[in-house]
Automatic annotation (TrEMBL), chain A:
Organism listed in the record: Ptilonorhynchus violaceus
Cited InterPro entries: TPR-like_helical_dom_sf, TPR_rpt
Protein name: Trafficking protein particle complex subunit 12
The protein's role, per its UniProt record: Component of the TRAPP complex, which is involved in endoplasmic reticulum to Golgi apparatus trafficking at a very early stage. Also plays a role in chromosome congression, kinetochore assembly and stability and controls the recruitment of CENPE to the kinetochores.
Chief subcellular location: endoplasmic reticulum
Name of the gene this protein is made from: Trappc12
From TrEMBL, chain B:
Oligomer and partners: Part of the multisubunit TRAPP (transport protein particle) complex.
Protein name: Trafficking protein particle complex subunit 13
Domain of life: Eukaryota
Gene giving rise to this polypeptide: Trappc13
Organism: Ptilonorhynchus violaceus
Residues spanning the signal sequence: none
Domain Trafficking protein particle complex subunit 13 N-terminal: 4-157
GO terms under cellular component: TRAPPIII protein complex
Length: 784, 398
């Protein structure tokens, strides 16, 4: 009888739909107030019906389940004001009607034979398909409409300047209102709010992927498109001092134009500089001239050994023959012997290096490394695919979006005043690089990294060409890629990361260069670069890949910790390590493992897998116990975001328990902040504002509290006060508060406030121009 | 005057992209310092992605049935003269009605240059489909000229949930309701409350928690929210109230079971609430006379008699005079006399009947073969497959 039951309810449902439509139509005809697009409203009515028939199909598919029409929201909600009372009654009555009528019709409908039911089955399907399509297109339409309407609105706006306009529009309204039944919807499009419509463009993409004024430049280098096919013609067969080197040594050795001189080395193994076969040709002239008067200290004191352990192409493309000709090696050994430093090797393999660089290669890579170590003088064949051959994928992303905007809105004169550091205006070295980074000129810094890498032979179009790596070159890559990520240029970062593979290729290990880094072991890839590499896919919409990479990192970190606990060295070898050093190593690797967990938690949060994310953050607390209050607060905020206020409150209480023991400004602020957020979750903006203000009393320069208090004011209907607070804050300490989130809020409020928002935004642009570097995300000014 | 409207959905928390490095890396602590200086990071835990900075809604977003539509209405005097008698009116036009949302209907006497009138309106959305916010402003210029203009803001209200229900009728008068609730929005949804408000005839027991040692735990575990397109099953057990259960005939045909009341929350406590329409259930048809089992053993011995108790209820509108016949099947053998008079049975009343039977076949056996005949109308009602018993050989049972 169950099936029968279901059937009858199905039919009944259908009947109800019809009734509802009827009542809807009835109302439409009676209604007088509709003065716009009655057509449209009617079509909406159809749409809802078709949506319901969609459900009907669902039901047929699922046979037993009955879709329930959600008739309306309950009447006894607390939020309702008295005025709405009468409205609810109407709704109630309607509902009652709906419920009564179908009951009468049920009996009739029950007689529907099976055949007619199958007929039913087919027709509504079509309708529903159309219906959903319709819906989608309708949505799009409204967006397009919104965009189109913008200029029209503009006409509407200056009402008082053209009083005639209003008089004209007035009768129009009057004409329209009597013709309730069929005013053509196309004739009078509905203006849509500018604020909404503007943001519509961005709405389709998550915020993270917003372009910051720059199109990711997909400069395709020829070698990129055909990495494997590209024959390395120019490479000499024999590895004697390469032409490039001989050129350096022969002609300009005294002026120290060796590419490697540009690297301020910062690791213990700084006396070896390595040059690549590709290096010479691509050293910019400008650079060589710059460095002419520059620092030759390192090179002059050491007999700069330019060592080319290039792997010239002997056979076909698939494999690269490493002909490590004995000659240079004897030279190297001579150098070491002659350096009168018996501790050189020992120093090289210092505790610090070993601890830091430790990494466990994959089985395959390990085998290659072992064969390199044991068969120094014979040839080792390595598949070209297993080599890392990076190169810049785009020449120059240098540019200053702020200046471009100034040119557009403030004129050339103002734009000239905008002065930021660029890659040319600093020293072509790590010092200059750091200068650019700390002055927030990250685009210029990316550019400078590119130049330094070009000098190393890994420049533009060099991807896919054999090269060799040094500690410095990898650090440069790390900085460049990290900055690209910081600039939200994820695609660019991904492109340039690609040749590095999974960061486990043999030539990324020190053991691969036994003569350059004698005795040194481990990976050249900085740990932070691995993190970066693992995190990158999640910003490109592939968080699963990020999780995979993070998991394999986690496994290696755990393995290293296990090795240490078992009295072995990090990589599992038998090395004597003093207790002290072992302790330090355990500490380092624990914190690294914690960092991996942090990334995992962040990634899970991005995937909106909140349950796992919360678990992961709990794990992070184990590794970073000092961050417990912050992390617990963060978990609380996650629950707030989901809407689970109760659990959020529980976490905030935990924070208060933890911080109870500590006193101090920071924990006090944290507690107040959490309370404010809790009130926010309870829709109590007034109380939330009170707590944010409380924080400001303790710490008047707290940017978050300032901003959040201003946001609360807006929700309380105090636009002017809110603006005053934000403006005051930006003027007070522009260096600190010209943050994109703050500016975003500010410009949003300007748009709400008046027609002069453009001028005010331009004023903000000027402020930004003085304080911010080229990495500033101009999107938040909404000047576009 | 300038007029602007902004929908006030809850603000969102700013997320930053952490990029860290280690002391020994090229930038030293530069990256970490940059993150520390960034006001949007969490101090002391800069790697935490979820910051504390609130950002205003960037777009209109979606609005769903049962949520509250809040909007900021700002009227700003951009001119350089004072305007008088400003009246701001905000109406919401739905497909069926027009509502006034303005908090105050009184006119503002005057508005100086660069000042504004602010209003935040709230409305709980009760209809699906196109809504149009109609804002009208009328005012008087200094010259005495009367001005009037209005603007329309259109938005669509979507359905947030898909609710499907299914009834299971138990042997007893209990009814089980399974409700599948699917989140068809694009954001996670915290289900604060999903309860069944029963109609007057029923008592309801929610079966969505599992009691473990005094503490009840949700059957959904730690996952308190519904991801987009996720579906949850809620189960309710409905028992007719005593007074209605007695009169079994009352619960017949289509009955109103009650309605589901659903309260959810999304970002930062944005609240929504919906009720379904009255859920209706077709009570299983019992015909005129209902025979239900009160007691029956689950396992019996082969070829050994056992007792069952039946309840016979007159569900019709008339008095019946019943005769009971017992027909043996190839496994079930009834003990006692067939064709016995049960006497008169009034409408909505019932009688209990103890019967003895035995099974000659092992295995799961169906109890069948009862026939009731109403001698007034000469109508016979057949009762087969009343229940199943497991028949085992007596050796096994011991």
């Amino acid at each position: 009888s169950n099936a029968k039951d279901a059937k009858s309810t199905l039919d009944e449902d259908d009947g109800r739909d019809i009734v509802q439509q009827k009542t809807e139509e009835e109302i439409l005809f009676h209604e007088e107030t509709i003065d716009l697009g009655g057509d449209e409203l009617e079509s909406e009515g159809n749409e809802t019906v078709s949506e319901d028939s969609n459900n009907f199909v669902d039901k047929l598919n699922e046979q037993m389940m009955e879709s329930v029409i959600i008739s309306d929201s309950p009447n006894n909600s607390e939020d309702d004001t008295g005025e709405l009372g009468c409205l609810q009654e109407i709704v109630e009555q309607m509902e009652a009607k709906d419920n009564q009528k179908p009951q009468g019709e049920v009996d009739k409908e029950e007689f529907l034979s099976n055949e007619s039911e199958t007929e039913h089955e087919e027709t509504p399907k079509d309708i529903s398909e159309i219906g959903t399509d319709d819906q989608a297109s309708l949505k799009e339409e409204s967006i397009q409409e919104a965009v189109k309407e913008e200029p029209k609105l503009g006409n509407n706006v200056p009402v008082e300047t053209k009083p005639n306009n209003i008089d004209e529009s007035k009768p129009e309204d009057q004409i329209l209102s009597p013709s309730t039944t069929k005013p053509s919807s196309e004739a009078e499009p509905i203006p849509v709010c500018t604020i909404f419509s503007q943001a519509n463009n961005a709405s389709t993409q998550p915020q993270l992927f917003l372009p910051d004024g720059f199109e990711p430049q997909m400069v395709k280098s020829p070698s990129f498109s055909s990495i494997i096919e590209t024959p390395v013609k120019s490479n000499p067969q024999v590895v004697q001092p390469s032409p490039s080197l001989s050129k350096f040594f022969g002609d300009t050795v005294n002026t120290n134009t060796l590419a490697s001189d540009f690297f301020d080395s910062f690791t213990t193994s700084n006396f070896i500089s390595v040059s690549n076969p590709n290096a010479s040709s691509s050293v910019p002239e400008q650079m060589s001239s710059l460095s002419d008067g520059g620092d030759g200290s390192c090179a002059s004191s050491n007999p700069a050994l330019a060592m080319q352990n290039g792997r010239p192409e002997a056979g076909g493309p698939p494999s690269v023959e490493i002909t490590q000709s004995p000659k240079p090696f004897s030279q190297i050994q001579a150098v070491f012997a002659g350096s009168d430093d018996p501790f050189a090797t020992a120093l090289n393999m210092s505790e610090l290096d070993r601890r830091n660089d430790a990494w466990i290669p994959s089985e395959e890579t390990r085998n290659v490394l072992i064969s390199v170590a044991t068969q120094q003088y014979s040839t080792v064949f390595i598949d070209k695919e297993n080599l890392t051959m990076p190169g810049l994928k785009f020449d120059n992303i240098q540019g200053d979006a702020v200046k471009d905007l100034m040119l557009r809105f403030l004129g050339e004169q103002a734009a000239v005043k905008r002065q930021v550091l660029n890659a040319n205006s600093v020293e072509q070295s790590f010092v200059g690089l750091k200068q650019l980074i700390s002055s927030k000129n990250w685009r210029a810094a990316v550019d400078l990294c590119g130049r330094l890498l070009t000098a190393h032979g890994q420049g533009y179009k060099k991807s896919g060409l054999p090269t060799s790596h040094t500690t410095d070159s990898l650090q440069l890559w790390f900085v460049r890629l990290a900055l690209l990520v910081k600039l939200n240029l994820f695609q660019n970062a991904e492109m340039e990361f690609e040749p590095f593979g999974n960061l486990d290729q043999p030539d990324l290990y020190y053991e691969y260069y036994p003569h350059v880094y004698p005795g040194r072991k481990g990976s050249m890839v900085p740990f932070s670069m691995r993190i970066l590499h693992a995190e990158l896919p999640q910003y490109l919409g592939n968080p699963q890949e990020s999780l995979d990479r993070l998991h394999s990192m986690k496994i290696i970190c755990a393995k290293i910790l296990e090795n240490l606990e078992q009295g072995l060295a990090e990589d599992g070898s038998m090395t004597n390590i003093t207790q002290e050093n072992r302790q330090a190593s355990v500490q380092l690797w624990r914190s690294r493992l914690g960092r991996v967990m942090y990334s995992m938690a962040n990634c899970l949060l991005m995937m909106k897998d909140y349950v796992l994310a919360v678990d992961a953050y709990h794990t992070v607390i184990k590794y970073y116990p000092q961050q417990e209050p912050q992390l617990l607060s963060g978990i609380g905020r996650i629950f707030l975001q989901i809407g689970d206020i109760k659990t959020a409150e529980k976490y905030f209480q935990d924070v208060e328990k933890v911080t109870h023991k500590l006193d101090g400004l920071q924990s006090q602020i944290m507690v107040l902040m959490n309370r404010a957020f809790l009130h926010l979750g309870q829709n109590n903006f007034a109380e939330a504002h009170r707590f944010f203000t409380e924080i400001l009393r303790i710490d008047s320069s707290n940017a978050v509290a300032n901003n959040n208090a201003a946001v609360c004011l807006l929700y309380l209907g105090k636009l002017k006060d809110s603006l005053r607070q934000l403006e005051g804050m930006v003027q007070q300490d522009p260096k600190h508060y010209l943050h994109e989130s703050v500016l975003f809020n500010l410009t949003t409020m300007y748009e709400l406030e008046s027609s002069r928002s453009m001028q005010k935004k331009q004023a903000l642009l000027e402020a930004v121009a003085i304080k911010e570097g080229d990495s500033f995300n101009t999107q938040c000014l909404k000047l576009g | 005057l300038i007029f602007a409207v902004m929908r006030l959905t809850k603000p969102t928390l700013f997320t930053n992209i952490p990029v860290t490095c280690e002391e020994r890396d090229l930038p030293g602590n530069l990256f970490n310092q940059l993150m520390k200086d960034d006001p949007s990071t969490v101090k002391g835990a800069e790697t935490l992605m979820l910051g504390e900075m609130l950002t205003l809604p960037q777009n209109f977003g979606n609005i769903f049935l049962g949520e509250t539509f809040s909007s900021y209405i700002s009227v700003h005097n951009d001119s350089n003269q004072v305007v008088k008698d400003i009246l701001v009116k905000a109406d919401l036009q739905t497909s069926s009605q027009r509502l006034n949302l303005s908090a105050s209907s009184a006119a503002v006497a005057e508005l100086k240059p660069d000042c504004c009138i602010d209003d935040v309106i709230h409305h709980e959305v009760k209809e699906i489909g196109t809504h149009i916010l109609v804002c009208a402003v009328s005012y008087t210029m200094q010259t005495g000229e009367k001005m009037y203009f209005r603007k329309f803001f259109k938005f669509q209200v979507l359905k947030p949930l898909d609710v499907k229900t299914k009834f299971y009728n138990a042997e007893t008068d209990e009814v089980f309701l399974e409700a599948q609730i699917q989140n068809i929005t694009t954001s996670p949804m915290f289900m604060e409350k999903v309860s069944l408000e029963p109609s007057m005839m029923y008592n309801v027991a929610e079966l969505n928690t599992v009691g473990t040692g005094g503490e009840s735990e949700s059957t959904f575990g730690a996952r308190t929210y519904l991801q987009p397109m996720d579906t949850r099953q809620y189960l309710y057990c409905l028992k007719p109230k005593q007074e209605f259960a007695e009169k079994a005939g009352v619960i017949k045909g289509v009955t109103v079971i009650g309605k589901l009341d659903i309260v959810w929350k999304t970002n930062l406590g944005e609240r929504g609430r919906l009720q379904t329409s009255q859920l209706q259930r077709m009570a299983p048809g019992y015909g005129d006379v209902r025979l239900s089992l009160e007691t029956i053993p689950d396992t019996v011995n082969l070829e050994e008699p056992f007792d069952i108790t039946c309840k016979i209820t007159n569900c019709s509108e008339r008095t019946m005079d019943l005769v009971l016949e017992m027909c043996n099947t190839n496994s079930i053998h009834w003990c006692g006399v067939s064709g016995r008079q049960l006497g008169k049975l009034h409408p909505s009343s019932s009688l209990h009947l103890a019967l003895t039977l035995l099974s000659s076949v092992q295995g799961l056996q169906s109890v069948s073969g009862l026939r009731l005949t109403d001698t007034f109308l000469k109508r016979t009602y057949e009762y087969d497959d009343i229940a199943q018993v497991c028949v085992v050989s007596s050796e096994v049972k011991q």
